[in-house]
Amino acid sequence: MARSKVREGSPWTGLWAVVFKEMADHLTSARMLILQALTLITAVGTVYAAASNLRDTVAQDRFLLLRLFTTAQQPLPAFVGFLAFLVPLIAIALAFDAVNGEFNQHTMARLLAQPIYRDALLFGKFLAGLFTLALVLTTIWLLIVGMGLVGLGVPPGGEEVARSLWFLVLTVFYGGVWLALALVFSITFRQPATAALASIAVWLFFTVFWGIIVDLLAQFLRPVRIGLPSEYLAQGQLALMLSRLSPNTLYSEAILAMLNPAVRSLGFVLPIQLDGAILGAPLPLDQSLALIWPHFTGLVAVTILLFALGYTLFQRQEIRA
Amino acid sequence: MSWRNRVLALSVIVLLLFSLSTPVLAQEGDQQQNSEPLTIFTQYPAQEAAVGESVTFNLTLRGGASPQVVRLDLQNLPEGWTATFRGGGKVVRAAYVNPESTTSVDLRIELPKDVKADTYRFTVIAKGERERAEIPIELIVKEKLPPSLEFEIELPTLRGTTDTTFRYSATLRNRGDEDLSVNLLAEAPPDFQVLFKLTGQEVTSIPVPANGSKRLDIEAKAFVPVPVGTYPIKVTAQGGEAQAELALIAEVVGKSELSLTTPDGRLSGEAYAGEETSLKLVLRNNGTAPARNVELSASQPAGWSVEFDPKEVAEVPAGQQVEVTAKLRPSEKAIAGDYMVTLRARPEGGASQSAEFRITVRTSTLWGIVGVGLIAVAVLVVGLAVMRFGRR
C-alpha cells in the first residue's frame, strides 16, 4: 500500500536548513559551553605540561608535535587519555534529546509541517551533531598545534601534520559512534533522561565492564589447560578480538598507531617476526594507516550502521501523537 | 930482647896493618858508591801500536857519578815520526839526575798516518857530563782494520699487495775497530715510504759499536695504491768513511677489492610481505686484480628468502662492475616496517664484502579494500533504508 505510492521530490530538501539551525542551537547551548570549556581546560593543561616536559627531556625527535598529544606528566594523563572519555560524553550530550526533545516540546509536528522530509530532519540532526563535534575538536586541535609552535618553537613536519589530522578524523568518527548511539536512544525513548542514561550505560559498559567480561570469556572459551605457549597465544588473541568489539579499544589502538609511528603492529607479535627488524624505526604514514585501516573503517561503518538503525526506527515511528 | 922485639915488631905490623887497612877499606867503600853508572831503562821496552796511534814509554833515569844534567836524545828514529820527551807535564830535552834518586821521563811517539806495518827499532840515549847510557826500544806497528759496515739480510725480496707493509729484517755489522754513528738512507720509488726501526723506535741514525752489530727493521709501505710491479728499494748505511748498501725488493701483486652496492648507491628498498621483489645490485671491483668465483650470500630475517641471479659470478675484472639481481621475498607474516638484510659477496681466496640493506616491508592493501567495502555496505544499508522508508 505504501509502496505503491510514488514519492516525489528529493529527501534532502531542507537538509542544510536543519543542519545550520541545529548547529546554532548546539553552539549556543549552556550544555555545550560547559563541555567545551572542560575540554579546553583539559587541552591547555595537558599540552602545557607535555610541552614543558618535552622541552626538558627530549632533545631530538622527528615527531615532536605528536608527542604533545601523547606525553603524560604526573599527575596529568596525556591529552589523548582525556579525550578517550570526553569525546563520548560530548557526543552523547549533543544527541541524547535530539528527537524526543522535539516531541516533548511539541515542536515535531510543527517542524514537519514545513517542506522538510523526516529523512532530512534526522540527517540534519545527525550531521549537525557531527559537524559541531568536528568544529569543537578542530578548534582544540588548532589550539594544540599553536601551543606546540609557541611552546616548542619547532615547526611541525608534513608527516606530523598529516598524522595529527588523521588523529582528528579518527576522533570525530569515534564521537560519531556515540552520537549515532545517543540518536538511536533518543528515538527509542520518549524521555530524554532515559535516553541519556541508556547512552551513558552503554558507554560505562564498554569503558569499565567490557574488559572484565572479555577476560572471563577468553578464559572460558580458550582455557589454558597444560600451559603451552600456543594456548596462551590463542587465549590472548581471542581476548584481543573480543575487546576490539568495543569502540574504545578500536579508538585507543588506532590513535596509538597514528600518534606513535614506531608502532608496527597492534596484535600479538611472535619473536620470529621481529628477527632482523629494526626496532624503533618509524613506519611510513601509509603503512601506519594500513595498520589502523580496519579500526578506522570499523568506526565509520558502526557510525553509519547505527545511524541507519536510528533512521529506520524513526521512519517507522508514529509522530503525529 | 929478641922475643920482646919480635912481639913489639909484630904488634907494630898488626897496628900497621890495621892502620893501613882502614884507609883501603874506606877507599873501597867510596869507590863502590860512585862507580854505579848512569842508567836509563823502561819497564816495557817493546810495544805494539796501530797506525795513527801514539805510544808512550815511561823511562827511568838513575845513577851517575855525581848529580848531573842528562840530555836525552833519540837515535835511528824513522823519518817522519815525532818523538817528544815529557816530564812534569812539559816537553823536556834534558833531566837533572841525582844519583841518589830516580828521575822519570815519558817518551811519546806519534806515528805518522802513512806508516807501514813493521817492527821499528830505535835507541834512546841519555848523555850525562861524563857518562852515557842507552836503551834500545822496539815498536811493532800493526796495520789497523779500516772501518767497514756490512748488511746482512735473509729475505731481501718480499711479496705483498698494495696495502701491505713490507717488513725487512736486516743486521748492520761494523767490522772495523772503531765505533761508528751510522746514518741510514733509503732510495725508494715514489709513493713508497721507508722507515727504519730499532727495537720498535723509528730511527734515522744509529750507533754501531766496533765489531758489533745492530738488528734493524726496515719497513716499506705504499701510501697510495700502486700498480702491480716490482719496486726496488736501496738502503744505504753511512758511517764515517764506511758505507754499506742493501738492495731490497718489494713485489706488489694485484688484489681484488670488491664492493657491493646498488646502481644508484641507495641501500634501502621496499618489499611487500610475501611477495617477491627484485633488487638490482652492482658488484664493483676497485682492486688491481680480477675477483674470481664471487659467491653471493645473504643473511636475512627468519622466514625470508633471498635468491641471487646469478648465484656465483665467474669473474669481475679489475676496475669493472657486474650487475646481479637479488630476489627478495619477505615472510608472509612479516609485519610492516624496516628490516635489516645483509648481502655478502665473497671472492675466491678473498675476504667477503657485505652490504646492509634496509628493507621497508609493506603490507598488502587488500584489507584496506575490504574495509572500504564494509563502509560501502553500511552506506548501502542507509540507502536501502532511505529507499524503503524515505520521504514520509
Structural write-up:
The complex is a heterodimer of chains A (321) and B (392). Chain A is an all-alpha fold and 321 residues long. Chain A has one domain (15-268, 278-315). Chain A has helices at residues 15-28, 30-57, 64-70, 79-95, 100-104, 108-112, 118-152, 158-188, 192-221, 229-243, 247-259, 285-315. Chain A is globular and about 70 Å long. The two termini of chain A are 22 Å apart. The mean pLDDT of chain A is 86. By secondary structure, chain B is mainly β. Chain B folds into four domains: 1-35; 39-142, Sandwich (Immunoglobulin-like), CATH 2.60.40; 149-252, Immunoglobulin-like; 258-366, Immunoglobulin-like (Sandwich), CATH 2.60.40. Chain B is built from two helices and 29 strands. In chain B, strand 5 (82-87) and strand 6 form a beta hairpin. Chain B is rod-shaped, with a radius of gyration of 53 Å. Chain B starts with a helix and ends with a helix. The chains are: A mainly alpha (321), B mainly beta (392). At the A-B interface, helix 12 of A face strand 28, strand 29 and helix 2 of B.
The pLDDT mean of chain A sits at 86
* Computed CA radius of gyration of chain A, to the nearest angstrom: 22 Å
Task: Give the CATH H-level superfamily of the largest domain in chain B.
Answer: Immunoglobulins
Structural class of chain A: mainly alpha
| Number of H- or I-type helical stretches of chain A | 12
Largest interface: A-B, 40 and 38 residues
Largest sheet of chain A: none
CATH top level assignment of the largest domain in chain B: Mainly Beta
Q: What oligomeric state do the depicted chains represent?
A: heterodimer
CATH-derived architecture of the largest domain in chain B: Sandwich
What is the total number of structural domains of chain B? 4
* Approximate strand percentage of chain A: under 5%
Determine the fraction of residues in helical runs of chain A and give it as a percent range.
Answer: over 70%
